[in-house]
Amino acid sequence: MDEVQTIESAVLSFYRGDSEQQKETHKWLQQVQNSPQAWSFCWDLMQLNKSSEVQFFGSITLNSKLRNDWAELPKESHHELKQKLLETIVVFGNGPKIVLNRLCISLGLFIVHMLQHPTVIEEVTSMFLNEQLGNLTRVTQIEILMAVLEGIPEEVKTVRTAIPRAMVCEELNRNAEFVMQTVVTYLKEKLSRNTIEPQDMNGMINAAKCTGSWVLHGNVRLDERETMIQTLLQAIHYCYWKEPKDDGCLMPEENELAETALKSLASIISSYATQNPKYSVTIIHLMKMFLDVLVPILDAEYKECNDNENLALMMYGLFIATLEGFASAIFDGIATESEEVASVYTRTVDMLIKCTDKPGTYPVDEMCSTYALEFWYMLQEEVLSMDTGEHRNRCHDAIRPVYAHVVKVLVRKSQLPTDSSMHKWNDDDLEAFRCYRQDIGDTLLSCHDVLGNMMLDVLSEALDESIMYLSYEQHQPTTDSWTLLEATIHAFCSIAQKVELMEHPQIVKLLKVLNEIPYEKYHDKLLGMALETVGAYSEWFGENPKYLPSAITLLVKGLSSTKASQATLGLKDLTSECHKEVVPYALPLLDACRTVLQDGQMKNPEMIRLMYTVGNILSVISYENIIIYLDAMVSPCFEELGIYVQNNDISEQAKARVVLRLEMISKLFSSLNINKTPPGGDGTDDKDGQKLGLPVRTSPAEPRPVQPILLILQKTMGLLKSLCTLWIHDETVIDTLCKALQQALTTLMDDMKPLLNEMCCLVLSIVNTNCVVSAADIAGNIILMFYNDQECRPLIVQLFTAIMDYNFSQMQANLDKLSRIADLIETFYAFNARISKKIPICYSEVQIDCMQLVDYATKCMMLPEMPPMKKSVAFLTTFIKESPKHPIMGNVVLAQGENILRSTFLCIGGLTLRAQVEVFAEIFLALNSRYPTEFVQWMKLLEIPNFPTAFVSAGEKEQFMRKVIKERVNKRLVQEHVRKFAAVCRNIVEYDGK
């Protein structure tokens, strides 16, 4: 008794103590719960004189013991346990609910353990149906029975039982029809009355849940479920129509019963979806039943802000689930001689058109319309995937008018929220609408697949309607009339990738409209959408360049607006796609860019992005003009950097400006390249060169013009070195500087050679002081690019040695905490993997400690962080593969091979996440391929007892060794062996041993 009091005090302390006390108490209570004595004291805790917290702890303790520790209970105690369970259920039959629910679960668990007795479910069911549980009312006994039956299939998934799993499933299948018949008989009996008593609702809800949980058992055909489906539909019909509701909202119990019935119907349909072909006739019949019962309810709820929105959502969800599982059967109605199938298809389409066009704005006024979007994708996929022929053509012709209508609906539904309605929106609503609008855009692409060029006609009509609406409201320019026009433009934007690159009159009309809209009168979102749309049609402008002026005019206008982001994105796309075509407009466009950059009104991301456009344009103008505009547009960046260097200004404000200027320079370096091959030509003939204003060599002997980026670097390298010195300890600035230099190297390639010495010195100073990831990246690129150039060899060797020494020193300093430098390790071994693959000879020619390099890699691949682990494995794999050709590398592998495998086994055994262990198959294959004899010897590491873990037996290790040694090529098979072995090592699944 003292023990019970101690537990009771601990439970109360847990619920009423502070967080630290709760933590300790919870740990102690778990230990108590797991003890064998819990079988006894749990009943003492479930006494009516105890607090509800203590009673609940007693009930969950019983749950836990039944689920996990059934083996502790002697067989002769089973009958006593059953009696105690039933007696306690009687005690708590009228509450508290939280305890009664747990007791119902416990009785379900008891039944699962006793399933070897063929009549256990029937006996318990009979006991409740015949009111043999003390003084509980029949209503309460039925409610409890349904709760117990409903939980049995779920408990089977988690319970530890002595009965073999196959026998449990067999018994569930054998009992399923008895349970279903019991449940359906009960529901039908209640629904046959004119009025259901309120006290019966909980029993009916539990019964409806029961149908959904048992449907996977019984091996019954779908057509044999018709009575159950009819009964569930009848329950939904009753709940909705039983009486007029003053406020239109169902009572909570009615709503729960209807929703539970819908969930069960969805479960029934989904459980048969894999047997699609067998039930084409049945599903048409069931779909007709759904339409007959549910569509009238949906029609009644076809309004904004209705109180039964969740019920409507679930109904649409049931229809979509049925279509997903049985699409082909229902879509046969597109073109068929069967009136029944055609009627089901037509009614389904009509219902989902209404769903798409649900009144109100998603998600603040309605939540349903998003459900139908999946249907429009399914329908077009079904039709367009048909074999070509007359039937496909007839189906295609039949759905075109439907999709034309849907397009106009989607345009209306995608209208943005207006300022006057924003009081109804919160951040979550706005994000949901953003996703919804993206889904509409994707659905419009499906519509285009069906309609083809007819899509442009439909959108052109919508454009006319939106302009007419705008014109009608022009006397009130501050109204919300712009949203329909913006939504129409959004639709044009959404399908840009599908539009053929020819001169469509509808696109021409769109461009004319976009340039004529008085944007200053309306919300700036209208301009933003127009700018985004022009950018989306960049490829189209490349094939129709005579319309470029209107596009450029609009985008330039956008640069000085609140929507500069969309304008800079549009210009970036336009100058990238229309590289050659933009030449006639290049200088005015550069002037416009220079003006907005000098104004200083742009946000930093827009200024950075605009420099990419500047680089694109500079790449196609004459060399003389390049120099002029570089001086005008790029010099200010370096002048500002020079001021900070001169003043030794390292304030936070200065840092922000330095990073901005370096990012602008980096973006320019990524796009400014006079050696670009223009689209549509090879960039070498004189005619194209003259047309583009490119520097053209008139003879092979004439030197190629110096790349502008090289000119910039030659003039500013001293400034960049000073900047580096000033900010050497600030990773953000140094990283940004390195990325700018990386962009320059990527663009210049071999043209960087005149500046290679200075570039290497700068990178070396960074590596030796603050080796940020991007510094290692650029160093790796320089080494790969220039290692074989004998003139550059001494410099490259110095850089390579510095990279290796710095990283070795960092790993040595952090040997016990390598995770601290995970990013550096990832970059370092990615760099060495490239070296191993491209120029492995350098490991022999440069004085590098390869033994240390490989030793650190074996340590790094055991890190918990995935990126450095994977890069280390990739390096080791490549190093091993290349090593036989290079004696120094080969000697390292021979010396380290056993160590590499030891680390690999430890990773597979538990150090690495099981989902990632397949990567180690690469090491096995590399070693087995290049060093087969030694590999067999090294694999004998597995003969060490309890290695890599105690869970794997000697026999299982022997089988694994045999399988892996056998495979030298088949990566997939080795990955499978590794995955299974990892599971055995972790005691997760039984190794199949095959």
Automatic annotation (TrEMBL):
Q: Which residues form the Importin N-terminal domain?
A: 25-91
Its BP terms in the Gene Ontology are: protein import into nucleus
Region of interest: Disordered: 676-700
Localization terms from the record? Nucleus
Q: Its Gene Ontology molecular function terms?
A: small GTPase binding
The record's comment on protein family reads: Belongs to the importin beta family.
Q: What is this protein called?
A: Importin-13
Q: Which organism is it from?
A: Anopheles darlingi (Mosquito)
Taxonomic lineage from the root: Eukaryota, Metazoa, Ecdysozoa, Arthropoda, Hexapoda
